[in-house]
Amino acid sequence: MTKRTRMLTTTEAARYLGVHPNTVRRWETQGLLPAYRLGRRGDRRFSRDEMDQFLAQAANGTGH
């Protein structure tokens, strides 16, 4: 069973990653950063664990 974690909005994810929200949106659209879409508008939510994995891959040169 996976642990439940609070999902972050695009703005919160951008702050966490130290980039502009548009960069987070672009990475998600390009398939580099996983996101979950909610509601009719398709609002993005990001898992902190998946963002940590993204950062680790980027640091190792295996990400984007």
What does this protein structure show overall?
With 64 residues, the protein is an alpha+beta fold. The protein has a single domain, classed as Orthogonal Bundle (Multidrug-efflux Transporter Regulator, Chain: A, Domain 2). Helix content is 47%, strand content 16%. It has 3 helices and 3 strands; from the N terminus they run E-H-H-E-E-H. It has helices spanning 10-17, 21-29, 48-60, and strands at 7-8, 36-38, 43-47. Helix 1 (10-17) packs across helix 2 (21-29). The longest helix is centred in the last third of the chain and has 13 residues, at 48-60. The protein is globular and about 35 Å long. The mean pLDDT is 91.
Q: What is the CATH level 1 assignment?
A: Mainly Alpha
Name the shape in a single word: globular
Quantity of strands, as a count:
3
H/E series, N to C? EHHEEH
Helix fraction, binned, reads 40-55%
Write the topology of this structure.
Blueprint: E1 7-8, H1 10-17, H2 21-29, E2 36-38, E3 43-47, H3 48-60
Antiparallel strand pairs: 1-3, 2-3
